[in-house]
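FORM 12-B: Structure-to-Sequence Request
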């Protein structure tokens, strides 16, 4: 009996030890295989705009089924929501000597366009036939800073025609966000009735030994003056003689520039000034004539110059006037610059169509060797103009100037 009792006791002890072993082993195995788990709230790859800024969405953590979120350490020191870039936020949790971590990528992007402020306000009025000067604008971007010099302006104000005009300003930041602003310019009054019908014939890029004599012959025949915006003539006595003849006929000589090479003349403000001053000095020396008006190659609205020096036209229109020059664009295009040998009738019709819309007309034409059809079209243009009651004039320092909108 005693033996049997002893045996049963030993069996129980073994059983208890075995049970303890199983529990301890199981517990250890549970601990061994369980790790803290971190779950990010929100996207692991997050995009935030500079305007909205970064707000930490947080995370949750668990160990087995136990919530250990309060043990999470969040390191977001790297994130700069005021600067475009990719940043990392690190989440770490330590629990029962075990560590887990996760990261979140934060992409700070810029979706805000630059803001354009128009100098002198968004609406303005100008007097008819006055010289329109764009008061300009400045622009600020939240990531690029001052982007004023990146502004481009589009639009033409023709002060010879009353009505409303629009100049549209555009600037794009380095992340492609485009800011725009529009200025309304009202040309007051009704100058069409007040201003007598007038045509200024202007010829650019000459003189030409072949075409200019034909043009002068026609002008002489009809007793009509014109304005020649000449380029460098290399001291050519034939060309000097042609210009003297034009002056004697009551024509005006304007400055187009010693060179017509855009890449050189629009390389810088000093380069441009030298190009017109050289020609002015040569004309002074060879003709005893003070040229007072220039025409920018391509017009003041040209967009080619920006390839060589961005924003140069805004500077040049001010600079040339400060240096005592007038500048004249045109408001009638004969279209003879669209190619060589443009049909005579095309030139005539283009001029008639544009001139019919207004009373004050500055016609763009050319007198290079290649513009024979321009010379051929001239008699019909003059005859038509006279019949329609236009007075033909040459530029004087008192002539109203047609200015395109600067667009660089
Ligand atoms: Zn030209």
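FORM 12-B RESPONSE
SEQUENCE OUT:
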């Amino acid at each position: 009996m005693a033996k049997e009792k002893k045996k049963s006791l030993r069996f129980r002890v073994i059983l208890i030890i075995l049970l303890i072993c199983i529990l301890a082993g199981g517990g250890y195995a549970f601990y061994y295989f369980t790790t803290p788990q971190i779950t990010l709230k929100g996207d692991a790859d997050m995009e935030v705009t500079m305007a909205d800024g970064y707000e930490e969405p947080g995370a949750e953590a668990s160990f087995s089924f136990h919530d250990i979120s309060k043990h999470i350490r969040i390191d977001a020191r790297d994130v700069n929501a005021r600067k475009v870039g990719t940043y990392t936020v690190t989440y770490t949790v330590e629990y029962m000597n075990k560590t887990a971590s996760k990261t979140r990528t934060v992409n700070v992007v810029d979706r805000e366009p630059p803001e354009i402020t128009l100098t002198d306000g968004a609406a303005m009025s100008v007097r008819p036939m006055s010289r329109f000067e764009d008061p300009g604008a400045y622009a600020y971007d939240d990531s690029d800073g001052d982007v004023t010099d990146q502004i481009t302006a589009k639009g033409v104000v023709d002060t010879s025609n009353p009505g409303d005009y629009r100049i549209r300003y555009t600037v794009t930041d380095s992340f492609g966000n485009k800011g725009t602003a529009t200025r309304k310019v009202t040309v007051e009054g009704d100058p069409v009735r007040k201003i007598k019908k007038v045509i200024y014939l202007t010829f650019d890029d000459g003189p030409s030994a072949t075409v200019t004599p034909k043009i002068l012959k026609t002008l002489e025949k009809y007793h009509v003056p014109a304005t020649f915006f000449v380029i460098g003539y290399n001291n050519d006595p034939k060309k000097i003689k042609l210009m003297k003849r034009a002056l004697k006929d009551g024509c005006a000589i304007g400055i187009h520039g010693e060179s017509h090479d855009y890449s050189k003349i629009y390389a810088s403000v000093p380069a441009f000034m030298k190009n017109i001053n050289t020609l002015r000095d040569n004309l002074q020396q060879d003709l005893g004539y003070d040229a007072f008006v220039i025409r920018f190659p391509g017009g003041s609205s040209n967009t080619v110059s920006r390839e060589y020096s961005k924003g140069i036209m805004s500077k040049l229109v001010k600079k040339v006037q400060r240096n005592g020059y007038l500048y004249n664009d045109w408001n009638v295009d004969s279209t003879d610059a669209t190619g060589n040998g443009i049909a005579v009738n095309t030139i005539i019709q283009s001029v008639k169509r544009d001139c019919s819309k207004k009373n004050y007309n500055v016609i763009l034409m050319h007198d290079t060797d290649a513009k024979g059809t321009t010379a051929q079209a001239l008699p019909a243009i003059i005859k038509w103009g006279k019949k329609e009651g236009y007075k033909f004039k040459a530029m004087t320092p008192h002539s109203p100037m047609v200015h395109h909108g600067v667009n660089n």
